[in-house]
């Protein structure tokens, strides 16, 4: 695809990412986003392993099912309090290293 745009001043994703990754602010925010996405993935994985529905987890955590769906989708952030309530449903603890 790069050949198509050569000479037009269009950069590939890899070029833009490499340039952006030089920024300390970008690196920090990118790292935080990866942590959030990993947590979302873990929540869904544990829920499926325990054969629980989103609704069941939500009821036990005393929150709407839509909160669980948004977290698992990876498109929304969540508070430490919300994470802790979900962790308790799975008999897990939230520990900060």
Describe the structure.
With 97 residues, this protein is an all-alpha fold. The chain contains 6 helices and no strands. The protein is elongated.
Any key phrases for this structure?
mainly alpha, single chain, 97 residues
Q: What's the layout of helices and strands?
A:
Elements: H1 2-5, H2 13-20, H3 24-49, H4 54-61, H5 65-73, H6 80-89
Helix pairs in contact: 4-5, 4-6
Strand content: under 5%
**N-to-C SSE series?**
HHHHHH
Q: What integer is the average pLDDT?
A: 90
Strand elements, count? 0
Strand count, sense and barrel status of the largest sheet are:
none
Shape descriptor: elongated
Rg result = 19 Å
The helix count comes to: 6
Category by helix and strand content: mainly alpha
Summary of the model, kept short:
This protein has 97 residues and is mainly α. The protein has six helices and no strands.
């Amino acid at each position: 695809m790069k050949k198509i745009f050569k000479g037009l001043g269009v950069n590939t994703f890899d070029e833009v990412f490499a340039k952006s990754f030089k920024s300390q602010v970008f690196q920090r925010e990118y790292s935080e986003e990866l942590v959030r996405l990993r947590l979302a993935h873990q929540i869904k994985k544990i829920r499926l392993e325990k054969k629980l529905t989103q609704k069941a987890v939500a009821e036990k955590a005393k929150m709407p099912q839509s909160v669980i769906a948004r977290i698992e989708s990876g498109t929304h952030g969540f508070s430490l309090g919300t994470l802790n309530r979900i962790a308790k449903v799975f008999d897990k603890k939230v520990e900060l290293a």
